[in-house]
Amino acid sequence: MACSCAASNGLLTSQSLLKSPSRRRPKVGTLAFPSIRASTESMSGVVEKLGIKVERNPPEPKLTELGVRKWPKWGCPPSKFPWTYSSKETCYLLEGKVKVTPEGANEAVEIGAGDLVVFPKGMSCTWDVSVAVDKHYNFE
Question: Locate the (S)-ureidoglycine aminohydrolase cupin domain: which residues (predicted)?
Fold first, then answer.
């Protein structure tokens, strides 16, 4: 697969590296690759979508601080059902894959194993469980 970048515009390609007479490694900071920035929020912080807060793979010390492993557990097989949160729920998915669609929304929030999720009090939604769920949960 050929890269559409050209060495003449300051971008290096595998072809331009092979043609380089010196074959020296470029100095750090001289390569002009497209900037790919990963948001710390999307990697380890909390992301909120449609009123649902999701933290992907939170650090173990945070789970310990919250007491997650002492919370009750709940699980269900693949299924689809409506749910209304009469209280705020925080849950940590040990297993599973779910698409949660809040009432009135045209899109879903996908959650799965390793996610720490907060559902607001009063939210009505539909759970579409594609992979059996096993989770710790806590109602406030």
Answer: 64-137
3-state DSSP call for residue 82? strand
What residues does 109 pair with on adjacent strands?
100
Q: Do 83 and 25 fall into the same domain?
A: no
Rounded alpha-carbon distances, angstroms, from residue 71 to 8, 76, 77, 138: 60, 17, 20, 6
pLDDT of residue 44: 56
Share of the chain above pLDDT 70, in %: 69
Are 96 and 114 part of one and the same domain?
yes
Q: Please, what sign has the CA dihedral across residues 21, 26, 30, 31?
A: positive
Q: How confident is the model at residue 75 (pLDDT cuts 50, 70, 90)?
A: very high
Helix or strand or coil: residue 78?
coil
Q: Quote the number of domains for the chain.
A: 2
- Does residue 114 share a domain with residue 55? yes
